[in-house]
Amino acid sequence: MNQKVAGATLALFATAMFLAVFNSTRHEVDMLLVNGAVYTLDAENKVAQAVAIRGNRIAAVGTSGDLRRRFDSDTVIDLEGKTLVPGFIDAHAHMSGLGQLMQSVILVGTASPEEIVGLVRDRAGQIPPGAWIHGRGWDQNRWEKKEFPAASQLDAVSPENPVVLIRIDGHAIWVNSRAVEIAHVNRDTKDPPGPSARRAASPKCTIWGSILFASRSTGGLRARRGFRSGFMPRSALPARHGISGRRKDP
Question: What confidence category does residue 69 fall into, taking pLDDT thresholds of 50, 70 and 90?
């Protein structure tokens, strides 16, 4: 046997011994997920049964029996045949918008302006005077009287807190008098580009047309600082639903 063959044989033997020792040694991991259908999405599209996790890394993927032999963990989760896939990467995410929405009064599905007024009353009781109340999702087409609401309805429950409630389509806002006052909107204020603001005998109205104009006028930009302060804790929501990242533009 020449030296090259002997060297190659020795290397293979050493590798085999290392793998044998490694596989026979139990390793501590933070979590074991077993008895599942684990879609690895690797080049061969392998489907495994179990995953070992150490820290924020996948330590191993394989059969449930193999990983149970190789790893110890205080946290073992039986998937009971459920599907496990790698985290989704969202191709079009508005994370800041999600953070804002989660701190807003959710109005989707509300059936009347009285219901919304009640939600605003509840929020006003939870925050200091002068703090902005934001909401989104109202749709007068769902109400018995399909009429645009008025500021006076919000004034009755939130005279000190400015209120800005965005319609479900994002093209109109329902505001109270305090928001109109802060925005310096009055009878002499010109309408924004596009459809005119809806006015009654006073500027206490529902504003529609240019939502960008309206949100700027009523403190939307100023309020972003408040949204940002609570954004990080709420960013865990996508992770709980399997979204682990978002696409970054090149």
Answer: very high
Q: CB-based contacts of 244: which residues, under 8 Å, 6+ apart?
A: 86, 87, 88, 89, 238
Q: Give dist(CA 147, CA 184) in Å, integer.
A: 25
Q: Are residues 82 and 187 in the same domain?
A: no
Same domain membership, residue 82 and residue 145 = no
Q: How many CB atoms lie within 10 A of CB 181?
A: 15
Question: Helices marked H in the chain — which ranges?
Answer: 3-24, 64-70, 95-102, 113-124, 151-155, 177-182, 211-217, 220-229, 231-234, 236-240
CB-based contact 108:148 (threshold 8 Å): no
Mean pLDDT, rounded, for 154-169: 93
Cα distance between residue 173 and residue 151, in whole Å: 10
Confidence of residue 6 (pLDDT cuts 50, 70, 90): low
Q: What whole-number distance in Å separates Cα of residue 245 and Cα of residue 235?
A: 11
The answer to whether residue 95 is domain-embedded is no
- pTM of the full structure: 0.58
- The CATH code of the domain that includes 115 is 3.10.310.70
Higher pLDDT, 185 or 67: 67
Task: List the domain range (segments joined by +) for residue 9.
Answer: 3-86
Summarised one tens digit per residue, pLDDT across range 235-244 is 677 777 777 7
Say whether pLDDT at 49 is over 50.
yes
pLDDT for 5 equals 59
- Is residue 160 domain-resident? yes
Among 22, 57, 86, the domain boundary falls at 86
Whether 174 contacts 165, CB under 8 Å: yes
